[in-house]
Amino acid sequence: MIAAAILIAFVDFVALPAERTGAPPFAVIVASDSDTGRITRDDAASIFRRKQTFWKNGLRVQPVNLPASDPLRQAFSRCVLGQAPEALEDYWRQMYFQGVLPPRVLESERAVNLFVATTPGGIGYVSTCTNDPRITVLITFGDVPNCPKRTAVCVPLQDS
Description:
Blueprint (H helix, E strand, L loop, with lengths): L1 H13 L11 E6 L9 H8 L13 E4 L5 H11 L7 H8 L7 E2 L3 H10 L3 E5 L8 E7 L19
């Protein structure tokens, strides 16, 4: 009985919803015609680390980030990738020498919405969902306004 309570407390501590970490809630979005199916937090991490470069249907994945200083980018990186954007700089330097570039950076959530809605294979994250039929919500972290619930939990932060 005690072991079960400890295990539940550990799981509750390790896999935290976005709102429990103090991070702003967000949704991972794709173009509605991307035919990507469902993805997990681990899938999103692979996509944004550029380890998965194609969707299951053969379409090239086109991830976009907000600027590293943006609070939503900070929340996304910590929650999905397990590290702050600054902690990933060494990773991207190493990937650069393997011919892999980081995701494109867009200046605003509005730009992310527009990019995802109009780019085959586009994927990004936003703090509020729109009623744009060209965009589909894949997963949500926290209670995201105007979004369907497709709840996932944050990964614990890794050492830099």
